[in-house]
From TrEMBL:
Chief site of localization: membrane
Protein name: SLC13 family permease
Originating species: Luteolibacter flavescens
InterPro entries: Cit_transptr-like_dom, DASS-Related_Transporters, Na/sul_symport_CS, RCK_C, RCK_C_sf
Subcellular location: Membrane
SUPFAM superfamilies: TrkA C-terminal domain-like
Transmembrane segments: 27-45, 95-126, 138-161, 173-195, 420-452, 464-483, 507-537, 549-576, 588-608
Mode of membrane association: Multi-pass membrane protein
Residue ranges of domain RCK C-terminal in the record: 314-398
Key words, A-Z: Membrane, Repeat, Transmembrane, Transmembrane helix, Transport
PROSITE patterns: NA_SULFATE, RCK_C
Length: 610
């Protein structure tokens, strides 16, 4: 071992030690490595900075933006809804469906891209289920890695190994040659993670964690809104049909407050804003707040107006929290609203919001509050479309926005652009699957299309990029160059042939898998496949056996980057949102890598005879 290689291995060991200790931050460690390698004269400055121009780094940044566009347009919400709906309240079913969906999509496009797209989906699902994100983020990453084992185009190492076979004069792999191996590994991986996920629980990130921000249900309780909500359908022959909402107000009790209107258009139901000039139609469903207790007179009035009570889907309309929200506002002493009633303040006309609650001090005012004169220090609860709630910030002299609920985080500000976002995503997948343009060009083109169709704006795009993850990837790339320049990779490969060259083929397959996995911890999986494919073919030739089992072993091992967060960009992406430490990947990934190695050694010679 030459002195330079010893220095590189020493630096690498130091980085791993700091990763394990989690001091300093992993991205800072990566920057320190970028500085140390050129200062030690091992690589040049351009080689140390090459990660910033690496196409895969640009690709990952672009895919963060694609993922954010799916959040802003509500697509991520709908995917999360489907996962929640079909998991039927079971975390086990949720994990299985998540891994199957990610692996299936990742088998046709970049696994890194799929994971980047699904990260916001998983965060939303974890938030709704009140789960620690770490219980789902590692299954997400592992499903992305396993997706590369399902098809020929699932990951670049598969194509590298296939190309090496063809150049050596052998038949290449078919599109589904990898599927039997990947399907078994995926099934075993799902079972393994159903057991291993408990090892990711921490006392401060478990199920019982309290969210410091308030939810809409907290408002319902604080302002005593329960049992004030009604869903009423306008029946056939109702005198309200064809009237405007303003004129219909004369035909109903004054304490009723229409919060929103559900109107059916074909197979979809739109939620409409209760504007004064809106014409009511037969079949419209009115979401009404009635502050006074029910009595016989009201029942008689409902019968006369032919309003049919319907089942409530959520307490105080919280089932529609993506369209309508709530907020608390405080009346300051110098507000021009002091001394006016809520009706005189014309909240609905000016701000397009309804006031449904009033608190003085800690006590909520019962009954109808429309005629209450406002005082300095009063707190109002308003309800309406989220875009109008956000506009409250533009009136700082009239009131101060006190509280915005957690449901606001799930609001899609560009929900109407969802079809465009899906179309752009389809274009990206098509370009990546067909290979008409490089993946990075496909992703950048998609970002431009998303911007042009207003699915995302520049500010949101820049905020979407997880810079610590990118810096970590960029900082570890120079180690690949350093190991190759100092002969570290060649030393490992030559040692493999010397020790196992005359051994039983299955033992050589196991050694080949282990060495490929170890090299893959520090070198990109594509570079690992480039280095190991010729060695595998040479070993098969020396033994006089078929090269296909050896080539398949290298391909599968190149994707088995489960052991550390820097083994693959897929793992690096989930580090921050999953709140993982370096040791989390070691304790989960090492046993699973050994399990995958055993499966590979058993399955490969069976399905691809030596």
């Amino acid at each position: 071992m030459n002195p330079q290689l010893a220095l590189v291995l020493g630096l690498l060991g130091g980085c791993i030690a700091m990763f394990i200790a989690n001091r300093p931050r992993m991205d800072v460690v990566a920057l320190l490595a970028m500085i140390a390698l050129p200062l030690a004269g091992i690589i040049t400055v351009p080689e140390a900075m090459a990660g910033f121009s690496d196409p895969n780094v640009i690709l990952i940044a672009a895919l963060f933006i694609v993922g954010e566009s799916l959040v802003r347009t509500g697509v991520a919400n709908h995917i999360g809804d489907l996962l929640l709906k079909h998991s039927a309240g079971s975390e086990t079913k949720l994990l299985i469906l998540l891994m199957l969906a990610v692996a299936g999509l990742g088998s046709l496009m970049s696994s890194t891209g799929v994971v980047a797209i699904f990260i916001p989906v998983v965060l939303l699902v974890a938030s709704r289920r009140k789960l620690a994100p770490g219980r789902l983020m590692m299954p997400l990453a592992y499903a992305g890695l396993i997706s590369g084992m399902l098809t020929l185009v699932g990951t670049a190492p598969n194509l590298v190994v296939d190309s090496a076979l063809r150049h050596a004069g052998h038949a290449g792999f078919g599109f589904f040659s990898f599927t039997p191996f990947g399907a078994v590994i995926l099934a075993i991986g799902i079972g393994y993670l159903l057991i291993a996920r408990r090892w990711l629980d921490r006392p401060d990130e478990g199920r019982g964690i309290e969210n410091p921000r308030r939810q809409m249900m907290d408002f319902v309780q604080d302002y005593r809104l329960a049992e004030r909500e009604y869903r009423m359908r306008i029946g056939k022959g109702s005198p309200l049909i064809d009237q405007t909402l303003e004129s219909a107000g004369k035909s109903r009790r004054s304490e009723g407050n229409v919060v929103a209107i559900e109107r059916k258009h074909g197979n979809r139901v739109d939620l409409m804003e209760p504007r004064a000039g809106l014409q009511l139609l037969e079949g419209d469903v009115l979401l009404i707040d009635i502050a006074t207790p029910p009595d016989e007179a009201r029942s008689k009035e409902l019968d006369e107006l032919k309003l049919e009570p319907l089942h409530l889907r959520g307490r105080y309309f919280t089932d529609r929290s993506r369209e309508i929200g709530m907020a608390e506002v405080l009346i300051p002493p110098d507000s021009k609203l002091v001394g006016r009633t809520i009706v005189e303040a014309t909240f609905r006309t000016r701000l397009r919001l309804n006031v449904i609650g009033l608190r003085r001090g800690r006590e909520a005012v019962d009954g109808v509050v429309a005629e209450e004169k406002l005082r300095a220090g009063d707190t109002l609860l308003v309800i309406g479309r989220w875009k109008h709630i956000m506009n409250l910030q533009k009136h700082p002299h009239d009131f101060v926005v006190l509280t915005l609920p957690t449901e606001m985080d799930e609001v899609a500000p560009a929900a109407s652009k969802a079809p465009w976002a899906l179309a752009c995503l389809a274009v990206m997948v098509l370009l990546m699957v067909t290979g008409w343009v490089p993946n990075v060009i496909a992703a950048l083109l998609t970002c431009l299309l998303l911007g042009a169709t207003r699915c995302i704006n520049l500010d949101s795009a820049y905020r979407a990029v997880q810079w610590p993850s990118l810096i970590l990837i960029v900082g570890m790339i120079p180690f690949s160059t350093a190991l190759q320049k100092t002969g570290g990779v060649d030393l490992a490969v030559n040692g493999l042939l010397q020790i196992f060259g005359d051994a039983e083929p299955r033992l050589l397959l196991a050694a080949l898998f282990a060495l490929t996995s170890i090299i893959g911890m520090f070198v990109s999986n594509t570079a690992t496949a480039v280095l190991m494919a010729p060695i595998a073919l040479s070993a098969a030739q020396v033994l006089g056996v078929s090269p296909h089992p050896f080539a398949m072993t290298v391909a599968l091992a190149s994707s088995a980057a489960f052991m550390t967060p820097v083994s693959s960009p897929v793992n690096t992406l989930v580090m921050v949102p999953g709140k993982y430490r370096f040791g989390d990947f070691v304790k989960i990934g090492v046993p699973f890598t050994l399990l995958v190695m055993i499966l590979t050694v058993l399955l490969v010679p069976w399905l691809l005879p030596l």
